[in-house]
């Protein structure tokens, strides 16, 4: 029964995508509206069934449907792993995903019929890929899901394929994701070479008890996969550009689900990372650095979606920090919380962008509070949650991560905590900046629409639902504020990922309240700079810093100089030295020689019978004379 | 003067050189005829002449060496000659249907 439900959960979105792909040119719009979100919601129902079962018992189900490959000692079962972690991820993917796909029904409405069907086809394909990724019971399925989410991300970023920047962004995202795919595949090779297993259970059972060279190599390669998919430094530059895709795509793939796959991977592979301490520490370090760097860049961005993109990188940095220090439960709670409030922020931004005729520049907004009240309230809930302000879910999850970092013994977590705290403060500031700039004050003189309309119900209801979830979601896990309070997410996941292995510090509560106070202060301080009719950007005083941040720490320029231009140079050099004279020239020369030769030879074809006969007889006589000569001399 | 041997003809014998010389003359006639004549029918006849010269050599050597393979091969050549004559004449008939032809040099449309 559950086995069939798990398979149905996986196949429903795949079927939806297939139907839409085959009929995209002829299917009526109403049917697309039904199928597109419908299969995701059916998947949500299937997930709820699995969820109800996993609440009852905590033992993982390893559903093997058939043996896919059997060759010598190598066996690969077609298996899905349904345990509390994968059910948790499926809830996020189908629940938040369902809301976003429903929202897209309204958001994408101005597209043509074929584009409309194509969009939902890609969305369902993505949902299927993501479910395959989180339900995979072996490394091969994991790689398949991992690569397919990259593909659907590529298709959706480049959805507006007639726009040059979208195509470039899609290609960039794909290339950087493939770097991660290669890391994951090499990790799988190393795992198979070392332990001879492909299923998660088999590998985890075969792991050595102490750290070693190969374990660190495997951990490092897995980490490469995780940071590429989750847009962490140094493989992060694709995510801001990915905002070229339609806003629901940014909400679903580049905020709520796909980019958190790296966190899922580290959580899923925690038996490896618990032993491979160096790779594990590297995950925490990379996450923390990314959190800080992305937060500083977000301060100077003017495109509302790019601010949200950098905040996504920053928040995923927190998740990496959490799973990197071994606080898996809090990390996944932050993943859930982030899925709520970041999807909310993106969809809210989508409403605004829609009302502003697709203008995304916050400097040209202003004064939306009075005109789009519902969207504004929802966006405010998301912003306060992102800033980490009570009682929104972001407060509980982020401060839980910071609290656990703070209380972990050792100098390394302490240092990470300091950076995390600075990031939290910066987050409050840039969130406040975004909020005051876009929604408060009086309308900008350059605003594209004088009297914006509130979004239609199909776009408003998902936003309101997410706003409610963002507001009350903190009640799931309150132990950031109440040390002995309940922690439903951590407890639910503890059979898979274990519990936090160190006691909370007695100073947790004062530190949490201090962070909260700072966040509130900075959120309000942003008003002083950006809430007034005339902005007084702080950065005017330090132009070099502003330029550094606006150029995104020159990562793009560095990669451009190091890789893109080097490769371009090598390619054009090869074009001149090899392609033109040899690969292109050789066949041409052969052709010219053949034509010239044929021109000369064709003169012998006189067409006269007697000529041919003469040549023939002459040849025969010559041959005869030669034979006779040879015989005479020998 | 090397001994080219005698061949058995009926009750008596014959010098093989005479027969081979006859074959050589026949072949030369045929070859020269093919080369210099223009009438297609005559060319076909000349080809037959060459084939028969070859046949004559074959059976001469067969008799001289007491080996029946030569005679067998002569039969084979006759068959081929018949077939060749049929094909050649058929082609000629087809050409004559389209146009009048008294010089094979007129058939030079396929020159390069």
User: At the third CATH level, what is the topology name of chain B?
Assistant: Helix Hairpins
CATH architecture of chain B: Orthogonal Bundle
Overall outline of chain A: globular
Largest interface: A-B, 13 and 14 residues
Biggest sheet, spatial arrangement of strands of chain A: 1-2
Task: Report the C-alpha radius of gyration of chain A, rounded.
Answer: 31 Å
Unreliable segments of 5+ consecutive residues of chain B = none
Summarize the main sheet of chain A: 2 strands, antiparallel
Unreliable spans of chain A: none
Mean residue pLDDT of chain B:
87
- SSE series of chain A: HHEEHHHHHHHHHHHHHHHHHHHHHH
Largest sheet, spatial ordering of strands of chain B: 1-2
Helicity of chain B, as a percent range:
55-70%
* Strand portion of chain B: 5-15%
Helix % of chain A is over 70%
The SS-based structural class of chain B is mainly alpha
**Number of helical stretches of at least 4 residues of chain A:** 24
* SS-based class of chain A: mainly alpha
Molecular structure report:
The complex is a heterodimer of chains A (634) and B (112). In chain A, strand 1 and strand 2 (74-82) form a beta hairpin. Chain A is mainly α and 634 residues long. Helix content of chain A is 72%, strand content 3%. The longest helix of chain A is centred in the last third of the chain and has 47 residues, at 555-601. The radius of gyration of chain A is 31 Å and the shape is globular. Chain A has a domain at 557-633. In chain B, strand 1 (6-9) and strand 2 form a beta hairpin. The longest helix of chain B has 30 residues, at 69-98. Chain B has a single domain, classed as Helix Hairpins, CATH 1.10.287.3510. In chain B, helix 1 packs antiparallel against helix 2 (40-65) and helix 2 (40-65) packs antiparallel against helix 3 (69-98). Classes of the chains: A mainly alpha (634), B mainly alpha (112). The interface between A and B is medium-sized, with 13 and 14 residues.
């Amino acid at each position: 029964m559950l086995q069939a439900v798990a398979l149905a959960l996986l196949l429903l979105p795949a079927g939806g995508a297939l139907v839409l792909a085959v009929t995209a040119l002829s299917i009526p719009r109403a049917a697309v509206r039904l199928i597109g979100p419908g299969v995701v919601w059916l998947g949500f129902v299937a997930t709820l069934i699995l969820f109800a079962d996993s609440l009852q018992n905590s033992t993982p189900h390893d559903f093997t449907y058939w043996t896919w490959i059997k060759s010598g000692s190598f066996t690969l079962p077609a298996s899905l792993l349904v345990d509390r972690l994968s059910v948790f991820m499926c809830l996020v993917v189908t629940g938040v995903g369902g809301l976003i796909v429903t929202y897209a029904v309204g958001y994408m409405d101005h597209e043509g019929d074929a584009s409309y069907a194509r969009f939902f086809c890609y969305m369902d394909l993505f949902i299927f890929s993501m479910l395959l990724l989180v339900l995979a019971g072996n490394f091969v399925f994991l790689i398949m899901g991992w690569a397919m989410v990259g593909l659907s991300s590529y298709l959706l970023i480049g959805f507006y394929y007639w726009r040059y920047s979208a195509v470039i962004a899609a290609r960039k995202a794909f290339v950087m994701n493939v770097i991660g795919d290669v890391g994951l595949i090499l990790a799988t090779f190393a795992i198979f070479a070392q332990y001879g297993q492909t299923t998660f259970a088999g590998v985890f059972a075969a792991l050595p008890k102490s750290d070693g060279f190969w374990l660190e190599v495997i951990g490092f390669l897995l980490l490469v996969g995780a940071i590429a998919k989750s847009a962490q430094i140094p493989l992060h530059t694709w995510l801001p550009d990915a905002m070229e895709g339609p806003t629901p795509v940014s909400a679903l793939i580049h905020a709520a689900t796909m980019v958190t796959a790296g966190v899922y991977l580290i959580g899923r592979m925690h038996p490896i990372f618990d032993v491979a301490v160096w790779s594990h520490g590297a995950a925490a370090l990379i996450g923390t650095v990314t959190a800080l760097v992305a937060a500083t860049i977000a301060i100077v961005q003017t495109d509302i979606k790019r601010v949200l993109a950098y905040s996504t990188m920053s928040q995923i940095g927190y998740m990496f920090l959490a799973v990197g220090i071994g606080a898996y439960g809090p990390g996944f709670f932050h993943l859930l919380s982030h899925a709520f409030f970041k999807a909310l922020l993106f969809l809210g931004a989508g409403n605004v962008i829609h009302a502003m005729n697709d203008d995304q520049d916050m400097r040209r907004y202003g004064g939306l509070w009075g005109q789009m009240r519902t969207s504004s309230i929802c966006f405010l809930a998301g912003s306060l949650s992102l800033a980490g302000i009570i009682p929104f879910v972001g407060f509980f999850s982020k401060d839980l991560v910071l609290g656990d970092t703070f209380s972990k013994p050792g100098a390394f977590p302490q240092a990470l905590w300091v950076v995390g705290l600075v990031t939290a403060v910066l987050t409050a500031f840039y969130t406040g900046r975004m909020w005051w700039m876009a929604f408060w004050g009086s309308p900008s003189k350059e605003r594209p629409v004088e009297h914006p309309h509130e979004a239609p119900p199909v776009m408003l209801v998902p936003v309101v639902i997410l706003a409610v979830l963002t507001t009350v979601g903190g009640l799931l896990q309150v132990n950031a504020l109440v040390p002995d309070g309940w922690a439903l997410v951590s407890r639910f996941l503890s059979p898979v990922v274990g519990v936090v292995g160190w006691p909370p510090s007695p100073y947790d509560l004062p530190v949490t309240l201090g962070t909260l106070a700072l966040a509130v202060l900075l959120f309000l301080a942003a008003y002083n700079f950006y809430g007034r009719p005339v902005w007084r950007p702080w950065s005017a005083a330090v132009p070099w810093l502003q330029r550094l941040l606006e150029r995104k720490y020159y990562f793009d320029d560095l990669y451009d100089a190091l890789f893109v231009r080097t490769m371009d140079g090598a390619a054009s050099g090869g074009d001149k030295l090899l392609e033109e004279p040899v690969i292109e020239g050789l066949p041409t020369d052969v052709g010219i020689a053949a034509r010239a030769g044929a021109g000369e030879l064709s003169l012998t074809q006189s067409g006269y019978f007697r000529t041919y006969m003469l040549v023939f007889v002459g040849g025969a006589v010559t041959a005869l004379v030669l034979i006779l000569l040879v015989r005479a001399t020998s | 003067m090397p001994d080219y041997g005698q061949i058995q003809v009926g009750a008596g014998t014959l010098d093989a050189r005479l027969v081979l010389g006859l074959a050589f003359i026949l072949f030369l006639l045929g070859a020269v005829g093919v080369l210099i004549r223009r009438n297609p029918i005559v060319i076909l006849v000349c080809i037959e002449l060459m084939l028969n010269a070859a046949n004559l050599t074959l059976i001469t050597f067969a008799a001289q060496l007491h080996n029946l393979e030569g005679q067998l091969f002569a039969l084979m050549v006759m068959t081929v000659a018949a077939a060749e004559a049929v094909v050649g004449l058929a082609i000629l008939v087809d050409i004559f249907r389209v146009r009048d032809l008294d010089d094979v040099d007129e058939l030079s449309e396929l020159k390069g």
